[in-house]
């Protein structure tokens, strides 16, 4: 079944700009989203989604009320929501394997048993900019095409990607929106940034850095392709991390010796557009990979997942796992 806007089938392929010009309501929604001020989202009730992660829950969740992600430059943040039961999925896509990821997003919503009830699937795409390598443009096209290939009707409600999310300064291009949050209870989507990206921020970032095309030096730096994974079980209201496996990161000492400029130019898809903390984040992740070159036994004793649950204060707390 087709991808729909205002009940009409979307004609693909089209650029994001052409698509919104054909549908003025999409253009207006993108303008309103760009015009918002950025809200700082605190950790209470928040489930932060990192690159190549997926999380889904519903308004019935007693622990999570907000899903969010940021630091998207060429990446896109995808929100898919069922209006009937309120089941909401948020993911941070980087183009690693969009063809495989879109069905994962669809199935995550369908996993809620009452997903066949009245209502419709609504899609929101945010992120990317007019980058010089056209990675954003490619990802936008991939996502629109793959959602258009799904069996279910999907209603495109928000499209603020690539050239629609672009600003120019001194002949350089930058994203306008780097991050968004969605309120699972109210369905509100808004510009957001996050100070708390945990739990296990470095561990989760290490998985992303070792697992796919996140840099200009991908072929030299990475040994494996890691697909998107679901990190949250809405039934138990538990965040599940791992167990992960990665090969020792190639030349980690060499990269740790490089100056900020070299790290930015070689380990980013869009060096000029990265947020100010990008290099610090990469250095921290590289240090983590140096400390844990093979994580199986050191980080995941007995090859067990790390489980977290929100405590009474709305903060993540590690819980003991009895699983084998």
Structure description:
The protein is of the alpha/beta class and 324 residues long. 28% of the residues lie in helices and 26% in strands. The protein has helices spanning 16-22, 24-34, 98-110, 135-148, 201-210, 218-221, 252-257, 260-266, 278-291, 295-299, and strands spanning 3-5, 8-9, 39-41, 46-48, 53-57, 66-69, 76-82, 88-93, 121-127, 154-161, 166-169, 172-175, 180-183, 189-194, 229-230, 232-233, 238-241, 306-310, 316-319. The strands form four sheets. It has an eight-stranded mixed β-sheet with strand order 2-1-10-9-7-8-5-15, with helices on both faces. A five-stranded mixed β-sheet has the order 3-14-13-6-4, with no helix packed on it. The longest helix has 14 residues, at 135-148. The N and C termini lie far apart (42 Å). The model is unreliable at 212-225 (pLDDT under 50).
Short characterization:
The chain is of the alpha/beta class and 324 residues long. The chain is built from ten helices and 19 strands. The chain has helices spanning 16-22, 24-34, 98-110, 135-148, 201-210, 218-221, 252-257, 260-266, 278-291, 295-299; strands at residues 3-5, 8-9, 39-41, 46-48, 53-57, 66-69, 76-82, 88-93, 121-127, 154-161, 166-169, 172-175, 180-183, 189-194, 229-230, 232-233, 238-241, 306-310, 316-319.
